Amino acid sequence: xxxxxxxxxxxxxxxxxxxxxxxxxxxxxxxxxxxxxxxxxxxxxxxxxxxxxxxxxxxxxxxxxxxxxxxxxxxxxxxxx
Length: 81
Hints:
This protein is mainly α and about 80 residues long. The protein has helices at about 10-30, 45-50, 55-60, and strands at about 40, 70, 75.
């Protein structure tokens, strides 16, 4: 393993920049927690509560009647929509 020697001032500058980066990331992570995320429901919950078929639900998504979010292959809906 190679050892790299740097001056104290360069190390402190690097450490200050890194701490600033960490603080910005923490602020970004906490920004979403200020808002109420609410509950999200999946296809099966929507189908059972609206008494519709899976194909009807697909049609509602396709024509923009029902808003949704997709994470990988899973689709979620806000109950208020």
